[in-house]
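Running this now, will post back.
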Amino acid sequence: MEKSNIKYQSYIQILKEELIPAMGCTEPIALAYAAAKAREVLGCLPDKVHIDASGSIIKNVKSVIVPNTDQLRGIPAAATAGIVAGKAEKALEVISEVSKEQIEQMKTFLDSAQITVNHVDNGITFDIIVDVWKDSDHAKVRIANFHTNIVHIEKNGEILLDIPVEDDSEEGLTDRSLLDVESIWDFITTVDIDDIHDLLKRQIDCNTAIAEEGLRNDYGANIGKVLLKTYGYDVRTRAKAMAAAGSDARMNGCELPVIINAGSGNQGITCSLPLLEYAKEYQIPEDKLYRALALSNLIAIHQKTGIGRLSAYCGAVTAGAAAGAGIAYLCGGGYKEVVHTVVNALAIVSGMICDGAKASCAAKIAASVDAGILGYHMYLNGQQFYAGDGIVTKGVEATISNVGRLGKEGMRETNEEVIKIMIGE
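Update: finished.
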């Protein structure tokens, strides 16, 4: 693929837009970002806060620990962290710099401020609206459709920003419809590594650091440690364990950043860490590792384009299939091996539900990475799933399209039931 090709330039830009740092689970951090911006617009610490949130936001914020809060959980805690200590200019690293004094201020604010939360359905899967008041002064900030997309700002009735919101539109981002597996393959086999090196080096460094932290200390259900203790240190187990350990840590309050993919730190971890273990095991040259990482990241983004940022369909599934594709490439596979790996992996674990961000995400990641690796070895052994086997159909693009339909439309009611279960309705 020539550098002048529109897809070449678009794929570089998509990687720049998606592979960004975030500290903590991205939905509570997006909420903290909105709250920090609202406080900034208000100009002072509020004494009253009201949060409107879509069901998928409530689901993904309810159970996860918010970093730099001394183990606080939930929507009021995430908003409070942003209001008390947030730096809105840092976006998804909004609460990366918090003092001990500010943590104590958060606890005081939670006890003293009037904070209310309302479940809203504005026809948008990703919707956060934060209203703050101090006496008669009022400010409002809305984020819609993706984590950093502020679409409305107002103060005391004066509208400072208002961008029309369409259902799950990602206007302002590079057109994801330009992605397809064949073109991604062309891109990763021809890309100038200098064009992607810094992005992927940052992903390697950040995500390795949090995985190592997850293995060193006690986080959540310690899935990474359990895998290594139970199954040993072969490359397949290490690939699963490192990804799981990264999730163990970030779901349970670790204060290290990750490089995300498709709006998700867990997906960013899953797309990258398994590949690093295979690269170490087989002494893969750096150039080939970077091409494999670009392949894994772009295939994950491509799959998520049809599903959407938030869904009842677990994002670890798509990321695990993408990791399998990257591993296939590292192990000498060509285009045919890559596409069959993706299809096989999706056939194995599609349908795993997302019931919010919490400790069990690490185990779902391990299962999804295992499916990706199994999908590759199936093809090596002359085995595959065929068109007509469930949601599998002829061609990788058609199967990815089916998964998108399942995740976005087919599991819409599942998502609502999951939310009702989680909030006790």
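The chain has two domains: 21-162, 174-423. More later if anyone needs it.
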